[in-house]
Amino acid sequence: MKFTALLLPLTLASTTLASSKTISSALATVDAATTKLGTAVTSWRGDLLGTLPIIAESTALLIEVKKGTKTAKDSAPLDLPATLDVATATNKLVASVNTTLGALISSKKKFDKLLLSPIIYGNLGLQKYATEEMSKAIIAKVPSGLQDLAKGLVAPISKSFELALDTFHP
Ligand SMILES: *[C@@H]1O[C@H](CO)[C@@H](O)[C@H](O)[C@H]1NC(C)=O
Q1: Pocket probe mutation, ligand 1, options 98, 99, 100, 127, max atoms within 8 Å of Cβ
Q2: For the chain, how are helix, strand and coil distributed in percent, rounded to 5?
Q3: What is the DSSP track for 20-53?
Q4: Which residue's CA is the nearest one to ligand 1's atom 11?
Q5: Radius of gyration of the chain (CA)
Q6: Contact present, 83 and 142 (Cβ < 8 Å)
Q7: Mean pLDDT for the stretch of residues 40-68
Q8: Where are the domains of the chain?
Q9: How far is the CA of 146 from the centre of ligand 1 (A)?
């Protein structure tokens, strides 16, 4: 009886720790994939063959976002320290999304030349939707008193997508 009482909080603590690590590390993976896509876009000279790495990184990113959504859905609710970890990871992602979508916006004319802008537009729509699904899944695990704050924290990501979608709108 005493043992159970002692072990239960420990088990709960380790579960929260594990899930915090999982959502945070999923966000870190999404962040890395976002940066890789940005690098592919920035180093692209505008040739057709050079779009292959962009397509590959874009697909990889979408897969990671979907994995992150599943990780968040499977996660236990986050405690305060775990929420702070996730907030830090989110801030990083906000900056990467800004940079990567900024690079994409700057490359619009190159995509136009290859008639690829409508494809980019479609892809951006998919990415935006997938990212918002991931955000929703994560916010659902944040303590209820902090959910509005969390929504504010991820809002710039949707804003970045809207800017990019406006730019690529056919
Ligand atoms: C990136 O952030 C800057 C500064 O907040 C903002 O002016 C710019 O519109 C953002 N760009 C994108 C693509 O989100």
Answers
A1: 98
A2: 85, 0, 15
A3: HHHHHHHHHHHHHHHHHHHHHHHT--S-STTHHH
A4: 98
A5: 19
A6: yes
A7: 96
A8: 47-168
A9: 25
CA of 38 to the centre of ligand 1 (A): 14
Task: Return the sign of the alpha-carbon dihedral for residues 102, 107, 109, 112.
Answer: negative
Please answer whether residues 139 and 154 qualify as being in contact, where contact means their C-beta atoms are separated by less than 8 angstroms: yes
74 φ/ψ angles, rounded to the nearest 5 degrees? -80, -10
Per residue in 89-136, pLDDT tens?
A: 999 999 999 999 999 999 999 999 999 999 999 999 999 999 999 999
User: Pocket around ligand 1: residues whose beta carbon is below 6 Å from it?
Assistant: 98, 101-102, 105, 160, 163
